[in-house]
Amino acid sequence: MASEPGTKLVALVDRGLELFLSPATRHRSERAILVVAIASYLVHLILILLTNQGVIAAESKFLQNPISAIYTPFSFILVYEVYLLIYYLPRSTSYYIGKQYEIITLIVIRRIFKDIGNLELYSRWFSNENDLQFTYDAATSLILFLLIFVFYYKIIRRENPEQDGDEHRAGRFIFIKRFLAVLLVPVMFALSLYSFMSWLGVAMNDQQSGMETLGKLNNIFFDEFFSVLIIVDVFILLFSFFYSDQFHTIIRNSGFVISTILIKMSFSITGLLNNALIIGSVLFGVLILMIHNLFSEKLTREADE
Asked: Which of 22, 115, 160, 271 sits at a 20 to 30 Å CA gap from 182?
């Protein structure tokens, strides 16, 4: 039997949770992100106005269509969703995975606002690449919304989805998740800073390239962040063996790793295949959770008989 985590390490993790991932910090972060999102939206609208008035020379539609300005505040809302993902990691593995699905859904919705700026409305809708991408993204967002509803519904139907092992092992597993969550906070900030500095460097050298890079923020931040999440998910899978050796729990956690990998892979492709892979990743996670719950309910009924 492994020894309990050191008292100093436990105290350090608790201090990190209180500082970065407490309900009070979450509330302050939410208010700060909303203020920044509103301010960024106004700044983007002003830049579009100056571009259309000829004060700023820019060929990118990103600085010409007012609808495209919604893309900017959505980017900050996505940052808050990343924070919520880390916030829920020590509380529930299922809700933590659900936040991954929310993030990829918001990425698709944000992309829709970018697609609207490139729409060309004419009769031959399905022969235009930009119009087709808008159609794919709109349909994908609806399907993802439905799948996320089913995913959370299956979590809520279970009173406590995390209680499959004894109390001692469950406490140790929760500590591991709390430790990983505290580690993820500086990683998130470091990746965010690196992404911003990378874009700023490109924008200072070439404004047009900077606008094009801004339109591909997924490849700058979320691609790397989901790579980190895959590592975290694998650690959760491995450490879950200390918590429970039940087959259905192991399969559920393994399925969540596969689902995260599929999401990460979607950032490397475009077009219809990108949308299909995103839907497939979330659908896989939903089915894994549904089968896990059925398996768990069956075992509970057999134990009560």
From this structure: 160
Q: What is the pTM of this model?
A: 0.82
pLDDT of residue 31: 92
Helix (H) or strand (E) holding 256: helix 247-266
Give the residue among 262, 266, 273, 268 at the shortest CA–CA distance from 132.
Answer: 273
Q: What residue ranges do the domains of the chain occupy?
A: 7-118+125-304
Specify burial of residue 300 (Cβ count, 10 A radius: 0-12, 13-18, 19+).
exposed
- Residue 238 pLDDT > 90, yes or no? no
User: On the CB side of 234, how many CA atoms lie within 13 Å of its CA?
Assistant: 7
If DSSP codes are grouped into helix, strand and coil, which group holds residue 21? coil
Report d(CA 258, CA 205) in Å as an integer: 39
Closest CA to 185 of 11, 5, 13, 9: 13
Cβ pair 201, 238 in contact under 8 A: no
Q: Which residue has the tokens 């996505």?
A: 78
Which distant-in-sequence residues (6+ apart) come within 8 Å of 34 by Cβ? none
